[in-house]
Amino acid sequence: MAMTLLFAGFLVLMLLGAPLAVALGLAGTLAILDAQLGILSVPTNVYAGIAKYPLLAIPVFILAGLIFERAGVAKQIVTFASSIVGARNGGLAVVAILVCMVMGGISGSGPADAAAVATVMIPSMHKAGYPKPFSASVIASAAATAILIPPSVAFIIYSVLVPQASVPALFAAGLIPGILAGLSLVIPTVWLSRRHGFGLSDTGPRPPFWQSLKDAAWGLFAPVIILGGLRAGVFTPTEAAVVAVFYGLAVGVLVFRTLSWRSLYELLAEAAEMSAVVLLIIALASVFAWAGSTLGAFDRVAAAALAATSNEIVILLLLNVALLALGMLLDAVSIFLILLPLLTPIMTAFEWDPVWFGVMLTMNLAIGQFTPPMAVNLMVTTRVAGITMESTVRWVLWMVLAMVGALVLVTFVPDLSLWLPRRLGYL
After folding, report:
1. PANTHER family under this entry (predicted)?
2. Per-residue pLDDT tens over the stretch 309-345
């Protein structure tokens, strides 16, 4: 009865439109009461769910991403990328992809990356002859690499839920798949641009390379500080987030002089609100996870899945299809919190590497960030462009297919994820 209350209660509450945090917490509490596990376990698990040192990095990285977004770093990086690619058919679209990848190495958040790049790139791309739906699709898909390229908020949450995978190992493992995912988008972007003649009016002079590099150096140096400091052991991932915040403040206030006291207050308020939402979901999901694990519900679900088929390839294919479908409806954090308690026993049964498994899951969820109907990144870029999401479907599906191709490679060639952390001594 308690297990029925846990799963059925969660589904009913979600169908009734309850917020995810409420549905998770209430379903877990009902199961705990029915099984007489002690009502005091609810507040205990709420506290234990967020009283974890790695989670301190989440609000700080969110703040760092907002600071770099508002400081105008994206504009300087766009100019630098344009000096490399030059004015050519499809060139500005490729610039948008490259800028999203670099900004992803600062913010760790897909929506934040999409907002920063779309604000700068969509007007320029429109003037150069790119349709707004196409531009919004390219930027939304490229911004999804932010949760793969370190630092990644998704990897931090995964490391808390799967302690066998350390944050430095996950950061290193996500780098090559993140770059591969970004480069996979270049193929349909250039092909579609040439096929439809997008960007033919992009005939402006190429920005001077050395001057644009000098102007963009402050932004380009941020990922170097974060990842270099982690590799050298100078600071932990949580401390790296704090360093990123102070570096961003120095760039925004002293170098670019784009951040005022008023804007700093607004940044802090927005970061606090975004962090509170994420941490509240994590806290109440901990009640759901504890109830399920204590009752043995997750192990039974995993055993049922393994009983259906013991073929590892079939399980991987079914898992990827399910994750891609869920990614179209829920955000990455929610899917991690709901599914990881169910998937961890399957991972253990097949002896899959938890770091590779985390990268594969995250790549699925990255694709979900720009796949309608939910598509949080696409929501951001279409709002900036002033268009409907429906108008992007004919373009964004090409981006989905391209990144699914990269996902297949990462799924069946684990060394794409594991080579770098092994070389760096994290595994």
Report:
1. SIALIC ACID TRAP TRANSPORTER PERMEASE PROTEIN SIAT-RELATED
2. 778 888 888 888 888 877 776 667 777 877 888 888 8
For the chain, which residues score pLDDT lower than 50?
none
Structure tokens at 394: 């004919």
pTM of the model as a whole: 0.83
- Residue 181 pLDDT: 95
Q: Which pLDDT score, from 0 to 100, does residue 87 have?
A: 62
Closest by CA position to 28, among listed 43, 10, 14: 10
The 3-class secondary structure across the chain, one letter per residue, is CHHHHHHHHHHHHHHCCCCHHHHHHHHHHHHHHHCCCCCCHHHHHHHHHHCCHHHHHHHHHHHHHHHHHHHCHHHHHHHHHHHHHCCCCCHHHHHHHHHHHHHHHHHCCHHHHHHHHHHHHHHHHHHCCCCHHHHHHHHHHHHHHHHCCCCCHHHHHHHHHCCCCCHHHHHHHHHHHHHHHHHHHHHHHHHHHHHHCCCCCCCCCCCCHHHHHHHHHHHHHHHHHHHHHHHHCCCCHHHHHHHHHHHHHHHHHHHCCCCCHHHHHHHHHHHHHHHHHHHHHHHHHHHHHHHHHHHCHHHHHHHHHHHHCCCHHHHHHHHHHHHHHHHCCCCHHHHHHHHHHHHHHHHHHHCCCHHHHHHHHHHHHHHHCCCCCCCHHHHHHHHHHCCCHHHHHHHHHHHHHHHHHHHHHHHHCCHHHHHHHHHCCCC
